[in-house]
Amino acid sequence: MADPRVIVVGAGPAGIRAAAALVEAGLVPTVIDEASRSGGQIYRRQPENFTRSYEQLYGTEARKARALHTCFDALRHRIDYRPETLAWAVKDGRLHVQSGMTAEALPYDALVLAPGATDRMMPIPGWTRPGCYSLGASQIALKAQACAIGEKVVFMGTGPLLYLVACQYMKAGNAPVAVLDTTPFHRQLRGLALMAARPGQLVKGARLIAALRAGGVRVVRGITPREVTGGEAGVTGVRYADAAGRTFHVECTAVGIGFHLRAESQLADLAGCVFAFDPAVRQWLPAIDAMGRSSVANVYLAGDGVRVLGADGAETSGKLAAQAVLADLGRPQPEDRTRRLLRDMERHVRFARGVARAFPWPHDKVAAIPDETLVCRCEAITAGELRAAVTALEAPEVNRAKAFSRVGMGRCQGRFCGLASQEIVAAACRLPVEKAGRLRGQAPVKPLPIAVTDGGSHA
Amino acid sequence: MQARFRRLAEKERRAVVLTVDGEAVRALEGDVLLTALMLSRGFARMSEFGDGPRAGFCMMGACQDCWVWTGAGERLRACSTSVAEGMDIRTHVPEGIWPIPA
Amino acid sequence: MRNVSGQADVVIVGGGIVGTSAAFFLRQRGVGVILLERFLVGQQASGTNFGNVRRQGRYLRQLPLANRSRAIWGRIPELTGADVEFMPVGHVRFLWADEQLAVVEKYQRDAAEYGLELHILGRNAIRERFPFIGPEAVAGSWSPHDGHANPRLVAPAFARAARRDGATIVENCEVLSIDRTGEDFTVATASGDYRAPIVLIAGGAWGGGFAAAMGEPVPLDVAGPQMGVTEPLPYFVHPVVGVSTKVPGEVAYLRQIPRGNIIFGGIARRNAALDEQRAKYDPAGVQAQFRQILRLVPALKHARLIRTWSGVEGYMADDLPVMGRSAKIPGLFYAFGFCGHGFQIGPGVGDVMAELIATGATTTPMEDFRIDRFGGSVPVRAHAP
Question: The BFD-like [2Fe-2S]-binding domain covers which part of the protein (chain A) (predicted)?
Answer without folding.
Answer: 374-426
